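Lecture notes, structural biology module. Today: joint structure prediction for complexes of two components.
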Amino acid sequence: MNTLLLYAQSGLDGLSQPWHWSVSGLALTLIVFLLTWMGRKFGISSSFEAMCTLGGAGRKISYFNVDLAGKGWLLFLVIGTILGGVIAGEFLASPAAVGISDSTIAFLEERGMSYPASDSSGRGFMPTSIFNWTNTAGIIAALAGGFLVGFGARYGRGCTSGHAITGMAHLQLPSLLTVIGFFIGGLITTHLVLPWLLRFLVGDVA
Amino acid sequence: MFRNISFLAVGIFFGITMTKSEAISWYRILEMFRFESFHMYGIIGVAVAGSAFVIWLMKYTQMKTLDDKLVVVPNPMQLNVKRHLLAGSIFGLGWALIGSCPGPIYVLLGNGYSILLLVLVGALAGVLAYGAFGQKLPH
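The predicted structure, tokenised, for the full assembly:
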């Protein structure tokens, strides 16, 4: 019995380390397999659309006037995704902050953001020195960034899960082109916008 | 009901995977777009190659899904280079700013970052805007 507990404990400790990229990639592969086998498509941003329909948007905008029957599974997937975050955060937390590269840390330091202290939890998941409920610039950035992600995902009919993983795995050219778009936009923000914008976004607390 | 519990379980596994892979980290996304680490490329690369192999195998062996159907391309899109690049770019502009795509928005909420509710509100507003005015764009 003690040995069993010991194994369980060491297993939990192993899972609590940050997962290697190859393990993470294989875990995502398993998810694609499971959802495909269950007759569904791995695509998270579809849930945004379903939420709009659920909220009654279909009465004003015909685009959302669709039958939600057969989309209930998305709700369970989304609730599970949130719960997975809760479980990983509560029971499988890594012993140290995300190990980003020194050059990324230097880039941030130059703009007044220390790492990992700019995430108040010290985990290195989200710069709460920017994105918090009292920093107006951060609030605007959160809303604007969310808007672009939501708009782009529905205009392109898919996000990272639907196009970058599922669509590419099905060897779809539209998905490849959409992913190239993801990178065009991401590189523009990262290299042309963030270098000067970060200084404005970081509130006094940083 | 059992089927729904299965989707819940897959979701939980997805949330844990995204957290432990660190793919939900704003800093990891910044690092990826600055080409300063292989980490994110490794995750996406293995996920795409692995999924492509699994899906090819399912098609090749004519494996039936639980709905007793063959595996086909889900909702194939008609090729429109302008649309794909434009839509992707709009998404990418936002992705690099908030450091999270739709999945991580939910996972970060679970990890206790309540500010993602604001990102979610922004995303829903973006979806509503597309539903209302998006038809005018190239399709």
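Point to remember: Chain B has one domain: 2-37+74-136.
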